[in-house]
Design a protein that fits this description.
Helix content is 56%, strand content 11%. It has 779 residues and is an alpha/beta fold. It folds into 3 domains: 392 residues, MFS general substrate transporter like domains (Growth Hormone, Chain: A, Up-down Bundle), CATH 1.20.1250.20; 80 residues, no CATH class; 228 residues, Rossmann fold (3-Layer(aba) Sandwich). The strands form 3 sheets. It has an 8-stranded mixed beta sheet. The chain has a 4-stranded antiparallel beta sheet with strand order 3-4-5-6, covered by helices on one side. Strands 1-2 form a two-stranded antiparallel ribbon. A hairpin with a 2-residue loop joins strand 3 and strand 4.
Length: 779
């Protein structure tokens, strides 16, 4: 005699009503909908506390993945080791406990730290605010599938199809949030609506539990054990009851690790170069979940093989293209570049998830399988968000993960194991040659030429071997190492990393300038060498967006001229960059910089890199922390407030809301000026600022300075600046002398951005309208 867990098809469970399957589908769909609506909603609530940093979303993803792993383990414990009715009661009790945390709101003790990395503080904020509701919801995917597997329904033998219902719900939430929920409802209404949905879900969970464990008279006892004759045990049953091999579990974890880590990497890339906003967070996450829906679709073995073979063709080709783009460091058409990155992400995720579906265990091990997948997901997110910033000074993990994904291609590992000595010799020779070429190019060739030559070599090496999964994977790793070596050996280039992003300091224009860049956006430059190669001495001139006759310089001059006392008693600058604005302030004028990133302050104050502060603003004062929080603690009125805070190309949206401008106005001197640097590749904020100015009884103007100065010493960059004043007479002279300053007239049609309700869709559409209008003028 032997003892084992009862298989669903062998249980003596009375036939339940036809409504059981639709009920479970609706409940699983609704649970996933609430789960993935909570992520962007609460992350958006948290953004203003930490300056709108994209890292907020990265940490949020890690937290939610870790909590989901905990929820899957909790579901596994309920299914494997608890009496079914008692387990159901425990889970309902947990859901009721979550009522104490409704409606969803920030529950934090004190402000975030400014003297060290705020990651742990942020994780504590998430745990205290939404930890219990999210944990309870995260268990429903495997838990409800396991309940259904013991329901006696005709489809109970293989309940994995319900995982698609879960992912469709998740995808629907992520699609609805930026396009429906966020544009139509403020955060307060979102929180209240989410709480109502959660209460309704709990009621449906109770109905599910009753329909399986009480309506059937207790016959569907999950985990109940009976004795059967060994002789009657079929081969299928023996396979179903066999224990999970450790190697199989490790493969599940690894296959879940790679796409999860790539998810966070791609999201960081998008958030850094466009905006830290739910619209751009949910695109990669939505695609990630969609790959589960596609991969976990039931197919015949032949169709599954054909599906994976098609993925194997697309993966090496797209990988070659993306690695070449990373090597060069730019792409001529940004939109096409983003689409290509996302396309490769989808292919890599499908490769891994299709393999997971192919290797799935029988339904008896369903909860353990999902727990292993969730562990891999949590580890992948933790690697990118928590470990990589400590190990790497740039986004090295992204190309490393792309190379790792090539090992997940079907047959890659087996092919590598089967390599003969001669094949390994050829691979080793090509790898060494590529590495040496990268180092030589970094030392000898011009920077742009070196990267282009290496990009061509990488593309050729991968594409010539695309049919061989093993060689493609190894050459992908070799290409990544070569890129890192070229970056390491390239003189005049430094990379620094903090919670708020990656900052690059590098020389430009034949070594005449040193620039500071965040992501792909330059945030300032200083001239370091003359045309004859000698070092520049004397007081530095502000460059790029900060030229004396540029829009920001113009705003500062207006504030000084109209202040009533001929100087700036107090200047408040939000955002430090290289510190170039310090050169606009006179020695007898007080200036305070409000900066959230301690690394930026360290770089700007290092006179060996940038001399603006040391030579122009030794009297400058620095305040660390989010400007909305730190500026509110000031008591001195400012003659000018400049908002020049960027996260790569993105302006933190919480600095552009009605409440933010109410703060600026409260701290503004009677004849003061507010200047907002709103240059952006994908969004236009002029109408939004104009609407806020109208709401506050102020006057808003914009200057779009598209000219690039012929004066080499300025390194002039195009810029767009909005200027807000109380009295239009303050800017009358600029309007009359044709400076390019224009009154914002279309503000009445723009939406009013508030802390409760602001969506970047309006700013993106405004940018499209502006570009269309400019194109029409040129035609």
């Amino acid at each position: 005699m032997t003892t084992f867990d009862v298989q669903p098809q062998r249980q003596a469970v009375p036939a339940l009503s036809r409504g059981v399957l639709p009920l479970f589908v609706v409940v699983i769909f609704t649970s996933a909908l609430l789960l993935f609506a909570l992520e962007p909603m609460f992350a958006k609530m948290t953004l203003p506390v930490l300056g709108g940093s994209p890292s907020v979303w990265s940490v949020a993803v890690v937290f939610f993945q870790a909590l989901m792993f905990g929820g899957y383990c909790y579901a596994h414990v309920l299914i494997r080791w608890m009496d079914p009715r008692r387990g159901a009661l425990v889970h309902v009790a947990l859901l009721c406990l979550a009522f104490l945390f409704l409606p969803v709101a920030l529950r934090a003790a004190g402000a975030p730290p400014t003297d060290h990395d705020p990651t742990l503080w942020l994780i504590g904020l998430f745990a205290a605010s939404v930890g219990v509701p999210f944990f309870a919801l995260s268990a429903h995917g495997p838990l409800l599938q396991a309940w259904f597997a013991r329901s006696g329904h005709s489809h109970a033998r293989d309940p994995y199809f319900l995982y698609s219902a879960s992912n469709v719900g998740s995808f629907a939430a992520l699609l609805a949030y930026p396009f429906v929920i966020e544009p139509l409802f403020g955060l307060r209404a979102q929180s209240q609506g989410w709480a109502i949905g959660f209460v309704l879900l709990v009621a449906m969970i109770v109905i599910c539990a009753f329909s399986v464990f009480w309506r059937s008279g207790g016959a569907a006892a999950i985990g109940s054990r009976i004795e059967v004759e060994t002789e009657t045990e079929t081969e299928a049953e023996a396979e179903a009851t066999a224990p999970i091999a450790p190697a199989a579990a490790m493969i599940w974890v690894a296959l879940a690790f790679v796409p999860s880590a790539l998810l966070v990497s791609v999201t960081v890339y998008l958030s850094n170069d466009v905006a830290a906003a739910p619209l751009l967070w949910v695109v990669p996450l939505g695609l990630y979940l969609l790959t589960f829906v596609i991969a976990f679709r039931a197919r015949s073995p032949q169709a599954q093989t054909k599906f994976e073979n098609r993925l194997s063709i697309a993966q090496p080709w797209l990988s070659a293209i993306i690695l070449m783009i990373i090597c060069i460091g730019s792409f001529a058409w940004m939109t096409l570049g983003l689409v290509t990155h996302l396309a490769l992400f989808v292919i890599n995720a499908l490769v891994c998830h299709a393999a997971l579906y192919r290797l799935r265990p029988p339904a008896r091990h369903l909860t353990f399988f999902y727990a292993a997948m969730s562990l891999g997901g949590a580890l992948g997110g933790a690697f990118v968000s928590l470990l990589a910033p400590l190990l790497f000074s740039s986004l090295v993990e992204y190309p490393l993960l792309l190379a790792t994904a090539l090992f997940c291609r079907p047959g890659a590992i087996a092919e590598i194991r089967a390599f003969t000595a001669s094949v390994w010799a050829k691979v080793a020779s090509a790898t060494i040659a590529l590495a040496l070429a990268a180092a030589a190019l970094g030392l000898l060739a011009p920077v742009d030429l070196g990267y282009k030559l290496l990009a061509g070599a990488i593309g050729a090496l991968l594409l010539l071997n695309w049919r061989s999964a093993g060689r493609t994977a190894i050459f992908g790793v070799a290409a990544t190492i070569a890129i890192l070596l070229l970056q390491t050996f390239t003189p005049g280039r430094e990379s620094f990393r903090s919670f708020f992003g990656v900052h690059r300091v590098e020389e430009a224009r034949d070594g005449k300038f040193r620039t500071l860049a965040h992501g792909k956006t330059m945030h300032g430059a200083i001239r370091i060498r003359n045309d004859d190669g000698t070092m520049v001495t004397g007081k530095p001139l502000p460059t790029t967006y900060y030229a004396f006759d540029g829009p920001l310089g113009e705003a500062i001059a207006v504030a000084r001229r109209t202040s009533g006392h001929g100087k700036l008693n107090q200047a408040s600058f939000i955002g430090l960059g290289t510190g170039a604005l310090a050169c606009h302030v006179h020695e007898d004028e007080a200036v305070t910089f409000f900066e959230i990133d301690p690394l930026v302050v360290w770089l700007a104050r290092d006179s060996g890199r940038f001399r603006f502060l040391s030579d122009c603003g030794p009297q400058a004062r620095y305040v660390l922390g989010d400007a909305r929080l730190t500026l509110a603690q000031q008591r001195t009125k400012s003659d000018i407030i400049v908002v020049d805070a960027f996260s790569s190309d993105a302006i933190p949206t919480h600095l552009l809301t009605l409440e933010a401008f109410e703060l600026y106005v409260r701290l503004l001197a009677p004849r003061g000026v507010i200047a907002v640097h709103i240059s952006n590749n994908t969004m236009d904020f002029a109408d939004i600022i104009g609407r806020i100015a109208t709401e506050l009884g102020l006057y808003a103007y914009v200057r779009r300075d598209m000219a690039v100065s012929a004066n080499e010493s300025e390194f002039r960059s195009p810029s767009v600046v909005a200027m807000i004043v109380r009295d239009p007479a303050q800017v009358r002279g600029l309007l009359e002398n044709g400076s390019g300053l224009w009154r914002i007239e279309t503000a009445a049609h723009a939406p009013l951005w508030t802390d409760d309700h602001a969506t970047i869709l309006t700013a993106m559409l405004a940018k499209l309208r502006l570009e269309a209008a400019n194109l029409a003028i040129f035609k």
